[in-house]
Batch of 2 targets.
Target 1
Amino acid sequence: MAKTISVKDDQTGKAWKFPVLEGTAGPDVVDIRKFYAETDMFTYDPGFTSTGSCESKITFIDGDKGILMHRGYPIEDLAEKCNFEEVAYLLLFGELPTEKQYKQFERDITYHTMLHEQFHNFYSGFRRDGHPMAIMCGVVGALSAFYHDSLDINNPDHRRISTYRLIAKMPTIAAWAYKYSLGQPFIYPRNDLTYAENFLYMMFATPCEDYEVNPVLAKAMDRILILHADHEQNASTSTVRLAGSSGANPFACIAAGIASLWGPAHGGANEAVLTMLREIGDKKRIPEFVKRAKDKNDNFRLMGFGHRVYKNYDPRARIMSRTCAEVLNELKIKNNPLLDIAMELERIALEDDYFIEKKLYPNVDFYSGIIFQAMGIPVTMFTALFALARTTGWVAQWQEMIEDPQQKIGRPRQLYTGQTKRKFVPMKSRK
Ligand code: CMC
């Protein structure tokens, strides 16, 4: 028998039944699409803590057990056994690619990595000290002014080309934001390099000498991209879906996602973690910061700690901490004071009753900044890197939404607590 749930108005005694839908994993959901029509009431869930906003087949998270899977594959397997391009294909098309599919996909992405030459003018309009995320929002939004030939969202070929363009151009856009801040010439992508290698090459090469991408660092970058590629219906992905639900073009939607990711509660946390570790400065000061994080009257939080969904160790953080050790080892960095502070902070927080009770564990952003810093990537670029990796997830989720026959424009309602109707007062009579 199909599952239902009953809702009763205790004052009038009226009762309604709503269907309960079962997914393939995770909690059931109450289907409240007819709730307003039948009860004349809205549901109230600011922050969407109990709301499933869509049906999706892409990513599954079990926050209590610390499980993350893409298309059914655990993140640990993908991070260890695949490269980023394979994971991107998996997110977009639902299956891991065969060798033939992989070669074709790699070619499709590689041949879209260049930016229109006029983007040089676009970049030079920014201040040199502009934040890379500000530049990313602007440049990605502007893509729709350059690539009009793929803007028809109802045409599957257009959708595919836009998707490839976004994934392919994002490393170029991010690396050029960095080059622009330095005043160095832009470095063009190279078709013989992998996605991760190409990004590092465009970041660190100059026209003056040969630049060899370090394979250990390229592997680490590839893994970091995999770990950030998608994460279910988080704030930026929901932003992309909501923007896309109105029929906006994909470049505009991804620019909206970048804006949402920028905040310190979301992707901006990797930058905030490093700023925090620098501010702590010495292991001796950790208790002082932990005390502040627990103080209700202080809005300081331990950045890189806690997650809306994970009430257990974030599986990405575990892989990230291993990757961090590999990178520091490769770069022969024996003493990294920030890593020492991070490890001690993690140890102290994980033994503290406040963090234990609230189930606050390190998240993906806790160690990523230390790796980026060791690689020579400046702090302001950290969130831009997150955006570059998450673009694949965003476009996969956007495509899924457009292809969903149930798709409607997203239009939440509200609990209105403002003034009710009142008499207009002319200015002269206002007090
Ligand atoms: N340090 C200290 N206390 C915290 C922290 C923290 N990092 N995170 C949550 N809390 C406390 C919070 O004060 C609240 O306490 P109380 O119940 O007494 O009011 C309780 O834990 C629940 O927090 P919340 O803010 O209601 O939880 P949320 O699900 O709305 O927020 C979060 C999740 C990630 C925004 C939050 O944990 C946070 O601000 N963390 C720091 C920023 C961060 O690292 N963000 C990266 C998230 S992972 C990358 C990504 O996918 O974006």
Note: Residues 116 and 146 are 7 Å apart (CA to CA).
Target 2
Amino acid sequence: MSAMYPIPMLPGPVSVPDEILAAMRHNYPSGDLETDFFKLYAITGRGLARLMGTRNDVVIMTGEGMLVLWAALKSCLKPGDKVLAAVTGIFGDGLGDMAAGIGCEVRKFCLDYNKTLGDLAPLEKMLEDFSPDMIIAVHCETPSGTLNPLEDLGRIARQHGSLFCVDAVSSIGGVDIQADAWGIDVLLGGSQKCLSAPPSMSFLSISPPAWERIERTGYQGYDALIPWRSIDGEYTCPYTPYWHGLAALHAGVQRILREGPERVFARHGEVALQCRDGLQELGIELWPAPDSTPAPTVTAALVPTGITWHEWRARLRARGLVVGGSLGPLAGKVFRLGHMGSQAEQRLMTDALAVLREAL
Ligand code: PLP
């Protein structure tokens, strides 16, 4: 538990600031019976829309990030639909597999996991004969510590009439995102990363063409999006809402808006640079390739030679620093510092780098 560690640097869930914990400390009544709940839902949605750069509807659901990944895919796609996944890491690959699990025909445009999207000509070639219903991409590949540019892919998706669905779970609130300008139809986010709230809520923006498809697909289920289309106006929820979780998410959004999103994004960039410079000074090799874009919210680096990940983690934990490992093919090889949300603090990073130096 990060609370047990004086220097929390997990790439989510991040440590939750007191003001966000305080927002949860109320005996909220049943949200679906109270207009105050729906007002908070609407205000929070508007704040999130600002952070996502969209005028589209924002739906907020009870459950952490994976929920909206499944909700978006199951609500938009039917068996036999065609999906192109731009894969630069574990989440892009996993999203492709999830679509295949729904019965879609999936093609993957794959780069190495230390790269980010660049020349899209080969991807466009794939699109010409495939004509996918949806293109999927990941903005910040958290396990790789990389950030994909999305604008060109969004333009290509629009040209081919494909929906563009983006997982931005670990970048919304920490990086400038312009969903509408970049042509993103469905943008997915979670509470436990840059919003600094507990891992209890997730949200997504939905464009009018995406709503049309959702209506056509007609998916019914606990994670279905259709019932959320009208909750603002009709004051009805598909299940008892988690008011405490929404209050925490709202407090997380307000925290960013109060400081000013531009200032917050700049702070993330500065701390990320401090982290990369600090690691390199210590002789620790960064994971992202030199020609790729490192994420402003999480830094991935190679576990130092001559020590296993488990020993390295134990050494850091013994000194009060908790960092993340990685997943899939990067497990055991890569470790990560999450400097997102409440953890995008220069002082915290200075402390983390001091521990890393001592542990080496
Ligand atoms: N997408 C990305 C890019 C993530 O980094 C994560 C979690 O780390 C998720 C989705 C899933 O979020 P959660 O673990 O909150 O379900």
Note: The chain has a mean pLDDT of 96.
